[in-house]
Structure prediction request, 518 residues.
Amino acid sequence: MCELLGMSANVPTDICFSFTGLIQRGGNTGPHADGWGITFYEGKGCRAFKDPNPSSESKIAQMVVNYPIKSCSVISHIRQANRGGVSLENTHPFTRELWGSNWTFAHNGQLENFEALDTGNYTPVGETDSEHAFCWLLSQLKTRYPSPPEDMSEVFHGIASLAGQLKELGVYNMLLTDGAYVMAYCSNNLYWITRRAPFGEAQLLDEDVVIDFKQETTPNDVVTVIATQPLTCNETWQKIESGSYCLFHYGELVSSPGR
Amino acid sequence: MCELLGMSANVPTDICFSFTGLIQRGGNTGPHADGWGITFYEGKGCRAFKDPNPSSESKIAQMVVNYPIKSCSVISHIRQANRGGVSLENTHPFTRELWGSNWTFAHNGQLENFEALDTGNYTPVGETDSEHAFCWLLSQLKTRYPSPPEDMSEVFHGIASLAGQLKELGVYNMLLTDGAYVMAYCSNNLYWITRRAPFGEAQLLDEDVVIDFKQETTPNDVVTVIATQPLTCNETWQKIESGSYCLFHYGELVSSPGR
Prediction:
């Protein structure tokens, strides 16, 4: 299984604290030694740092920890390969353009019979079930909405329905963002927490690191973190139900069916 | 004007020496202070490092200099903005998928009336003439070859013809790669050099750095570097004629009309 990490915030925020915990699971406290990646949005643009090497030993991961890039939308992934070899083209997150925006995607799980999904104009570059599913999903959206849709809530509701079809093929936990919205679709394991004033202290589970968010934030900050497993041991994380999703828009939960 | 840098090599090679010279032109020895980017291929995958800040001050650029990533195909760009604001989405190189491969593109120059070019299924994310031209070019190729063509020399010959149409709109120096081929199309300024055994010493123009390639290479290495202006002061660089191109395949020149 891989580890997912996402962030949605109302002000550009660094994800160093959570990422510090996550990368320990890439070969150190976890078995996910087959590469890692993280994609940050800054406006309409995004930049990714990726490495097919274990995150706990990666110099690029160390740079990401030490050089806080501030962003409102972040998706990260550390990989334990199941489908597709260990290589850069198979390293998540994947980014493709749809409706003139960069869409970024990461997946945890494993799909059967994914090759039959028609990916239309989005051809996978690597061999993973994940990239194939992402290409299919974008192709379906492009067919449904040839030009940019106005009601994005409706679009994400449709994406949840497509994700439900993928879940039928196996295990499908997904993080997806267009830079403004961050969507978390849960097949079996996905937790989230929204931090806002009054901020307190948090203690990482995977490393002996404590952060006092009061020192790092302003009273108006709203920051949501999503992860495969809770990253801290002294806060309450919410689990997303199997087959359901949470949609965040600049930190705030805007849609979650069944809640 | 911006600065372009490309590399094509028959073995994974680091570009630190040339990049060290290039980044000095981003705000230090040159006026190109509006961001920079570099994209490395490793197999079918690629990774990019980008920063909208001047390269001469960028911590990420320093990491790229100090952490040699070895690659057979590299494209880099430092920007002096003319069309499109200083932002991450306007920072070259641009990468898009075509025929299941990552294609990477950087442009130096300025185009008029580029908005009329139909970009088909490739919608620009930013506002630059460059990304628009790249999207148009890919769209034209996808229309001409709906499935992956076999004869890539013919494809690049067709790309040169499309580049010629773009040159009619202004100044169009271009670097383009699919990871195996690196193409350099020249509108006014583009130079290249192929280094092979016996290797000698090279002295950077922009900084007091000398490299002895004998220490860094094996006798079979073939490494071509392409740049807007020669980067070294003690070697002979070849200028590409206006309206012409050079196509390199793992270091070797494979096509150059008129030579």
Q: What stands out?
A: Chain B touches chain A through 33 residues (CB under 8 Å). The radius of gyration of chain B is 17 Å. The longest strand of chain B covers residues 3-13.
